[in-house]
Amino acid sequence: MSVNSAAVKEYLLELQDLIVTRLEQVDGKKFIRDKWQREAGGVGIGAGGGISCILEEGNVFERGGVAFSHVQGDKMPASATAHRPELAGCSWEAMGVSLVMHPRNPYAPTTHANVRMFMAHKPDGEAVFWFGGGMDLTPYYGFEEDAVHFHQICKNSLAPFGDDLHPKYKKWCDEYFFLKHRNEPRGIGGIFFDDLSVPDFDTAFAIQQSVGDHFLSAYVPLLEKRMNTPYGERERDFQLYRRGRYVEFNLVIDRGTIFGLQSNGRTESILLSMPPLVKWRYDWHPEAGTPEAALYDTFLKPKDWV
């Protein structure tokens, strides 16, 4: 079996540049491109590098980041071996593109997308690989046509690989992006997959590529439709409150964040997904019959949108 990590890295760098260029066209402001390098040092900590593209105080995005990283280590972090104890102690490398965009307008949804590959190197020389990724949508005000569009593009991205993948990866997304301590989803889902290594490297890589290639067509039309909608203090206040759920998920549950911190990753890049302004309230609930309540009653309940 041929494992071509160089081809994966080339694709990921091209994807990052494509997404950043398109989002700059929407916003009108340029991302800061921060190239970084980390030297090896310490047990389990290897060399690494990447490019963190960050946009703050833009015309459309209050904050957003599109990050590429490629890091290696000589001992697998605990978060990566929880489901694969046989790989404990193996050397490893991980590469991926991860993005989170937080628009300023409360009617424009936040989005997250990630495509990545992880590889462990056994002492006998065998390379064990798996791909992961997906995309999901977190609106603050729900629109049925937006939900249908996003989920349809997600479905389209998986269609070439069989009819069984979309239901499986949609369900996986609904279950993964769920805050158990709140008993509620983070958003309206999308698709999510991990530990993908079958039937072979080329097919798994092709699935990853298709998911990455469909992101812009899933998100940008929704962003352009909603980013100039008039709003007031009420909508802004609710947006900041709901952003709190985003922070809770990323810091408490997200495997990528936990892995990055456990492997002594670059903190600024790992946490660039955090929104710039957030609010929490004690035991607050929206008033029945309001658009804010509709988010909970209609949209934050997993359903088959397409």
From TrEMBL:
Region (Important for dimerization): 246-281
Pathway: Porphyrin-containing compound metabolism; protoporphyrin-IX biosynthesis; protoporphyrinogen-IX from coproporphyrinogen-III (O2 route): step 1/1
GO biological process: protoporphyrinogen IX biosynthetic process
Superkingdom in the source lineage: Bacteria
Site (Important for dimerization): H181
Cofactor: a divalent metal cation
Catalytic center residues: H112
Binding sites annotated in the UniProt record for substrate: S98, N114, V115, R116
GO terms, molecular function: coproporphyrinogen oxidase activity; metal ion binding; protein homodimerization activity
Main location as per UniProt: cytoplasm
Keywords (A to Z) from UniProt: Cytoplasm, Heme biosynthesis, Metal-binding, Oxidoreductase, Porphyrin biosynthesis
The keyword Oxidoreductase belongs to this UniProt entry's keyword annotation: yes
Broad EC category: oxidoreductase
Described function: Involved in the heme biosynthesis. Catalyzes the aerobic oxidative decarboxylation of propionate groups of rings A and B of coproporphyrinogen-III to yield the vinyl groups in protoporphyrinogen-IX.
HAMAP family tied to this protein: Coprogen_oxidas (MF_00333)
Self-association and partners: Homodimer.
Family: Belongs to the aerobic coproporphyrinogen-III oxidase family.
Name by which UniProt lists this protein: Oxygen-dependent coproporphyrinogen-III oxidase
Originating organism: Gallionella capsiferriformans (strain ES-2) (Gallionella ferruginea capsiferriformans (strain ES-2))
Gene: hemF
